Amino acid sequence: MNIRTVSTQPFPDQKPGTSGLRKKVPTFQQPHYLENFVQSIFDSIAAPQGATLVLGGDGRYYNRVAIQIILKMAAANGFGQVLVGRGGILSTPAASCVIRKYRTFGGIILSASHNPGGPDGDFGIKYNSGNGGPATETVTEEIYAKSKGIASYRILDAADVPVDQLAETKLGNMKVKIIDPVSDYSELMESLFDFPAISTLLKSGFKIKFDAMHAVNGPYAKEILERRLGAPAGSVMNGVPLEDFGGGHPDPNLTYAHDLVEIMYGGEAPDFGAASDGDGDRNMILGKRFFVTPSDSLALLAANATLARGYKQGLAGVARSMPTSAAVDRVAKALDIPCYETPTGWKFFGNLMDAGKVTLCGEESFGTGSNHVREKDGLWAVLFWLNILAVRKQSVESIVREHWEKYGRNFYSRYDYEGLPTEAANGVMQHLRENFSLLTHKQFGSYAVEMCDDFSYIDPVDGSLSKGQGLRILFSDGSRIIFRLSGTGTEGATLRMYLEAFEADVSRHHLDAQEALKELIRIALDISELQARTGRDQPTVIT
Ligand code: G16
Questions:
Q1: What count of other Cβ atoms lies within 10 Å of the Cβ of residue 188?
Q2: Which atom of ligand 1 has the smallest separation from the CA of 496?
Q3: Cα first-last separation, the chain
Q4: Over its length of 543 residues, how does the chain's per-residue pLDDT go in tens digits?
Q5: CA 273 to ligand 1 center in whole angstroms
Q6: Cβ of 151: how many Cβ atoms within 10 Å?
Q7: CB burial string 266-299: b at 16+ within 10 A, e below
């Protein structure tokens, strides 16, 4: 066995963001770049000799190359076994499921999620701990610290391992086991939801369309929706994963999932539509000519959770990221369960779930999940919805409208300004921070500012403090404007502006969100001076 110790120099830019390290493919292709980060992970987690690791990714460009490098480095760093999804494929929730099911030490997931792929697209890598969830900030900070001082990495000199057939091979002293990426996950889904009831619904003429966006969930959706549940062939569209996602932007929202949106708003629209992203953890839910906001979807799943087998006992609590609308807070109040508000990023939910404090959680960025794994889970959300639809036998739209009648409607929208010059984006944030005291208690049209702050969070489980998590302008009627800089972008800065207004009056629930939020949007643009400071009249994406 020939283990090489390779001398290297640190790269200054290996600080993990909201969800791991995400960079352009050519950045990862630089000599030693991936190796440095992987060695920094291994040095930080200090796995015992012989430990087992899970490895897989969303199949994007560079996935296969990275898999081979990581396998050889794992062998040289004393791992005993690596479980690899066939073809190097594992959706993010499936990786979490496999880590938990086989109680492995942890796992490495290769994905840049919803970011575009291909030779000029994005690539990413993140470490998930033994609970199946993204490493906590304490661990990612440690990885970053190691990356800044790295002088060498270890790698085995060996031929590539075949990963396209289910098999067990040896790499040095380490076992490499190629596993079916879909089966463990499918079994888990079957244990949570009433598959016979969903199957009856799907065979009764209730039509669905699932857009896998040429990303990792294609094989998962085909297996579960078409094979196990009997949806007609073709219910899954764009179901073949491609290294560049067919040139698309695999982000399930009204802008990027346009193929599906056209179908769902067209003449012969199916009853239910859904899409998921590059690595299968995000979801978008649509009814016939009707869009369900992710924040509403989370609230609705919480309110209807006991209709699904896996949640019959009720919920211990719920959690949402700070910018996510407070719709779920109202449900939690009615159910008399705790509701936690965390910073953006799934890693903050893990501790709460491990401690048994929450069962369901979600983010406005098309992410919903539960304690069945420690990642958000796109297909899980789709199955949860189908289970509710199978029991309630109503349309998506009527279920949502009834929900609003009961709890009120939280009008919600997010404006993304992508690819801004970093200084301009920082300038907007700085300007807002400096004006906090001037804004407080000021009246803007029908809105009065109650308080402003830079959100910080003390983890109730481990006591860790996360600061600088987004600027909040909170109004006396519960409306909110939030500004945040993205931690997942790979080009310039992305500034996100989140807007929320609560409406109890049912006669106004039919309004379009942009119409209902018009005044708040104007106020947000005024006080931030965003347009003047960035030179942008329009956001890149509105969700
Ligand atoms: C964005 C979203 C977050 C989400 C994160 C990772 O982060 O705003 O809510 O947790 O992406 O999601 P995914 O793993 O699907 O990429 P940011 O920092 O860009 O706002």
A1: 22
A2: 20
A3: 53
A4: 799 999 999 999 999 988 899 999 999 999 999 999 999 999 999 999 999 999 999 999 999 999 999 999 999 999 999 999 999 999 999 999 999 999 999 999 999 999 999 999 999 999 999 999 999 889 999 999 999 999 999 999 999 999 999 999 999 999 999 999 999 999 999 999 999 999 999 999 999 999 999 999 999 999 999 999 999 999 999 999 999 999 999 999 998 999 999 999 999 999 999 999 999 999 999 999 999 999 999 999 999 999 999 999 999 999 999 999 999 999 999 999 999 999 999 989 999 999 999 999 999 999 999 999 999 999 999 999 999 999 999 999 999 999 999 999 999 999 999 999 999 999 999 999 999 999 899 999 989 999 999 999 999 999 999 999 999 999 998 899 999 999 887 788 999 999 999 999 999 999 999 999 999 999 999 999 999 999 999 999 999
A5: 22
A6: 11
A7: eeebbbbbbbbbbbbbbbbbbbbebbbbbbbbbb
Name every residue whose Cβ is closer than 8 Å to that of residue 289 and which is 6 or more positions away in sequence: 264, 265, 269
Is residue 414 within 8 A of residue 306, CB to CB? The reply is no
Which atom from ligand 1 is nearest to the alpha carbon of 18? 18
Taken in order of first residue, the domains within the chain and their CATH numbers are: 2-181 (3.40.120.10), 185-407 (3.40.120.10), 409-542 (3.30.310.50)
Distance of alpha carbon 208 from alpha carbon 364, whole angstroms: 23
Q: Which residues have CB under 6 Å of ligand 1? A: 18-19, 113-114, 277, 281-282, 321, 344-346, 363, 365, 367, 486-488, 496
Is 113 labeled as catalytic in the residue annotation?
A: yes
Please give the biggest Cα pair distance in the chain.
73
Q: What is the rounded distance in angstroms from the CA atom of residue 476 to the CA atom of residue 1?
A: 67
Nearest to 496 by CA among 459, 534, 465, 457: 534
Written as six digits, the tokens of 498 are: 């989140």
Closest CA to 27 of 121, 146, 109, 140: 121
Which tokens go with 202? 């799907």
39-to-42, 72, 175, 177, 454 alpha-carbon distances in Å:
5, 11, 19, 22, 34
Q: Residue 362 is inside which H or E element, if any?
A: strand 360-363
Among 159, 235, 236, 244, CA closest to 203 = 235
Q: Do residues 33 and 27 make contact, with C-beta atoms less than 8 angstroms apart?
A: yes
Residue nearest to ligand 1 atom 6, measured at CA: 19
Pairing of strands 339-342, 168-171: unpaired
